[in-house]
Amino acid sequence: MPRRKLPVGQLGTIRYEKVGPRRWRAHGYVRTFADKRLELQATGGTKDEAAAALEANARVRVYENAGAIIDGDTPLLELLELTLKAMRDGTVGNRKLRVQSVNTYERILPLFSGKQGDRAIGRLPIAECTQPIIVNWLMKLSERAPANAKLSKVLLSRAYDVTAMHGVNVWPMNPTYGVKLRAKDREDEEPVALTLPEIQAIWQNVQAWQTPYKRVDLVGIVGALMATGFRPSEVLALQWSDIDLKATPKARVTLTGAIVRQDGKLVRQGYTKTKAGYRVVSLPNWFRDMLIERVVNAESVLVFPNTKGGFLDIVNVRSKFRDARGETYSHVKLKSFRSSVATAIEEVSGVEEAARQLGHASPAITGRYYVRRAADAGDHTDVLELFAPTQSAG
Fold this sequence. Notes:
3 domains; DNA binding; DNA_brk_join_enz; alpha+beta; hpI Integrase, Chain A; DNA polymerase, domain 1; 3-stranded antiparallel beta sheet; 8 strands
């Protein structure tokens, strides 16, 4: 009768031999995922210590898979690089990611190498990257950089999917499952809602900054942000063909794309962030007049091109705006105009109309992230009535 094969990853009968006064050696066989039967050995001060060392050795060796792309000895960083390739190709996760999204994850790879002071777990073989090690690393990173910790968690979760695809069952479950990371500070999430006096003051500062020698049309860009509620990257992608200045009763603009950076190059992405983002927005008369002034001398298909007619880099535009906005408004960013537009429309017409203007499929997103509301303190007047002044005698 043929010998029954060992289950994959399970040690066979362990044999012991005494190799010194206080030294034991344990021997055993383990079957790998490549269907190889390996003989292993390990030593320890007692039988139990030798057996524990043998089992630890087996846990690493079981993933050896000659000719495979990854195995238990593959460094975590190499697995993450393979994961990023799979995310580009759409072979892992629910869908193929946009190039700029993959680039975002690529930028956090140095974290795993310890280049920013974090523990260099990227150098560890994946068989040694246990769940406690990964969880501890994520929690430590979360204390310093919550946003990067969130990205790292997603990347590690996709890496788990890649190991499963390649039959390397190094983690019994997703090592990031259930990890609760520190959230960003509330102040960072609070939308900015500019008042009319604040908007007028910023207008004056930007107009004072804009001189004939300034090559970025910051007045026009800020105007577009205020007039539409578009994202800055969407404003920079506006083409004259998207705008109908003769439409009645109001001029209109159709949002058709955004300027993004893909693999280090600026490109115009010819579609919106979501399906709901593809929309027609009516323009206020003051912005229509601004566009009429600009279209006369237009030499590019873009409404806001660089000096050569190409794409403006949002990084440079943000820098120009920081110079122009004034110290009083250092908390105001280009994206602040989007939340200001949403809040202004919500106060007059409701959150549903604000969502339509911003291109959100759900008003809940608009209300949560873009509309600034005062907290409702409730009605406690029955208590406060007790503080009414008494009538003086006489």
